[in-house]
Amino acid sequence: MENKELFTVSVFSENTVGLLSQVALIYTRRCINIESISASTCSIPGVHKWTITSWSTRPVMEKLVLQIEKCIDVLKAFLYTDSDIFYQEVALYKVDTDLLLDEPHLEEIIRKYNARILDINRGFTVIEKTGHNSETTALFDELKRYNLRQFVRSGRVTITKSEREFVSEYIEKQNKRKNDTLQGQ
Amino acid sequence: MKITGAEGLIKSLICEGVDTVFGYPGGQIIAVYDKLYDYQNEINHILVRHEQGAIHAAQGYARSSGKTGVVIVTSGPGATNVVTGLGDALMDSTPLVVITGQVSTAFLGTDAFQETDVVAVTQQLTKWAVQIRRPEDIPGAVARAFYIASSGRPGPVVLDIAKDAQFGLTEWSHEQCRFIRSYNPTPEIPEEDINEIAGILNNAERPLILAGHGITIANAEHSLLEVAEKGNIPVATTLLGRANLPFSHPLHKGMLGMHGNIGPNIATNKADVILALGMRFDDRITGDVSKYAPQAKIIHVDIDPSELNKIVRASKSVHGDAGKLLASILPLMQYRDRKEWLALFDKCDTTEISEVISHELHPDKEEMNMGEVIDVVSEMAPADTICVTDVGQNQMFAARYFRCRSPRSFISSGGLGTMGFGLPAAIGAKIGAEKRPVVLFVGDGGLQMTIQELGTIMTYNVDVKIVLLNNSFLGNVRQWQELFFNARFSQTQMHNPDFVRLASAYGIAGEDVTDRSMLSDAVKRMFEHDGAYLMNVRVDAKDMIFPMIPAGGVVDRILLNPTTKFSI
Q1: Nearest CA in chain B to A176
Q2: What CATH number belongs to A86-157?
């Protein structure tokens, strides 16, 4: 069997009801587990960007992306591996303040991981860390010593390394087609 | 003036050119049926006997007429009963707009009586599915539905309309949809691709065109003929593309795939260039993909980009309309002799005729074969006859032995292989092309899956000639059991009713044909009869469809019968 690698799919879509389940089913049909997913509005008005990561192989993922694009309300979908993109995740950690204050190297930890303290109260402290999965995991391992009460990690967000902005180009092309179509009426 | 959403729906359908709908009323669509009552002069509603019949009839209608088929059913079971047809239409690229009633918005998600989450159920089996909750949203959704269903790669669309949207009042105006930002159904084929493809074909020693359903959908049968003739290139057709070229055209070399003709399958693995047009390399065509067309430079043209490089890696894949491509390359095509290449097909045909076809058509036994029955029907059928099939041996024999002579004359359930498709599809095909004769080839298994539609034939006097190839077996499964499961005929023998008497109960004429000597007179009577006719032909259950490339086999390793392999 081929070795699986981690792929990131960026989907640009209209904001319509039911599209999420439609896209999720495209993964389900191939028995591919979604590792992480994040979705929100993007810089283009009305357009939502989703970032979905999953372990698979390239031939499978290439076909899957075309199936996603086939959904009527999807504008564009792109397939990336980690080397094609800049990506980040946010992690939050909730630890006991008492234990943390006893730690002689607290400053060192915060500094070493370039983390941020969001809130300190008598009971607990909330720490935030932005980075790659391996980095937030490393801090997680470190903080386990301080009675880590909660740990949460977001899905991935990405920005491409490409000079071209393919979605904007697509929308421009479509707008031109719209004008041609309506004028041709 | 404000009108109800239900009336707006009907007015929008009329604006989209709809004059025929297939359906079945029910509690959550009753408001629409009430308004249909007022529009009986504009819209002809065909009341079927089961919702599955409605959707298959709409498929037949869409495929014979080239128009979008429309289905109206109620919520819950009404909607779930059309699911098979949605899957079938999606696989076979058939434009449908299916309107389902839905419970009132206040009841959504409460497990209300006859509530089903129709959008969720149908999402994976449609090109687009949407729920409408407000009357003012109906015209826009209808316009979008027709645009999506009929453009690009056609397919089924579901509009799930809540009861209060049907009853609610709204101002109504309808504007056709011609643009959706996230959808491009008319991709342009770059000039350089056209030149390149024409160049590849002109230089090819052993080219082969694979013509699929996309040619039919694009109404490009004539362009195909012109390109083939001008370039002197042999054409093989897929199951759904059988009517793309007249059966007996010298460049039409037959059908591809598992039960296709020997020539095209052998040629696939000898060709140096394959031009695949509007087809999707189904596994029934490719067999073992790793040993498929090893020598060929494959040019794949399809309007659906997700079909490109899905099964077979193409040397050149083109996202575009197969018909437009043919029209564009026509002026560039050059005639080449290719005598040796074309002789290959003749050589294969000679073997196929002596080893397979002659045994099928002129058997040395008492019982009749399916192929010989179809051959006689084909011989006596008018030139513009539409051949509709069910699924199984009847379908494969019809695809092989019925000689389609005009465009859109072969309608069958290809991708999904839906038994029970035939009878309702034939009804729809006839309603969509009233002037053309329609012949249905169906087995005793498939006929009984939707046999209730004999009632629809009775009500509307639909002139469908039903040729029941009755072997009292589920023949195709029986064949596989015989070949691959030590002839253990598990659950394939059918205990059947008296079909002619059954038809007679519906006022449909018919007769039993139990002997070869009766056949041609019976076929003559069938075609001369004014109205529907059921010919119950007793055929040999032991008859098997050959040639055969076993599932997953290599396309040039063809069985001529259970024990003999073809060799050239």
Answers
A1: B181
A2: 3.30.70.1150
pLDDT at A102: 85
Residue A1 has a pLDDT of 56
* Domains located in chain B, CATH noted: 2-171 (3.40.50.970), 191-345 (3.40.50.1220), 368-538 (3.40.50.970)
pLDDT tens digits for range A103-137: 888 788 889 999 999 999 999 999 999 999 999 99
CB contact under 8 A, A22 and B124: yes
Structure tokens at A54: 């999953």
CA-to-CA separations, B431 to A41, B205, B389, B434, B465, in angstroms, rounded: 48, 45, 16, 5, 13
User: B253 pLDDT exceeds 90?
Assistant: yes
Q: Is the pLDDT of residue B90 over 80?
A: yes
Chain A hits for B90, Cβ within 8 Å: none
Q: Which residues of B touch A13 (CB under 8 A)?
A: 182
For chain B, give the mean pLDDT.
97
- Span B527-542, mean pLDDT? 98
Q: Are A63 and B183 a contacting pair at CB < 8 A?
A: no
> In angstroms, rounded to a whole number, what is the distance separating the alpha carbons of residues B238 and B284?
10
CA–CA separation, B401 and B533 (whole Å): 21
- Domain(s) labelled CATH 3.30.70.1150 in chain A stretch across 86-157
Per-residue pLDDT tens for B35-72? 999 999 999 999 999 999 999 999 999 999 999 999 99
Tokens of B53: 């019949």
Of B471, B484, B422, B429, the C-alpha closest to B450 is: B422
Are the beta carbons of B123 and A70 separated by less than 8 Å? Answer: no
User: A23 phi and psi, to 5 degrees?
Assistant: -70, -40
Confidence band of A185 (pLDDT split at 50, 70, 90):
low
Q: Which residues of A touch B (CB under 8 A)?
A: 13-14, 17-18, 21-22, 25, 29, 62-63, 66-67, 69-70, 72-75, 171, 174-175, 177-178, 181-182, 185
Choosing among 3.90.1150.10, 3.30.70.260, 3.40.718.10, 3.40.630.10, the CATH entry for A5-80 is 3.30.70.260
Distance from CA of A67 to the nearest CA of B (A): 6
Residue B386 host element (H or E): strand B386-389
Q: Evaluate whether B141 touches B111 at the Cβ level (below 8 Å).
A: no
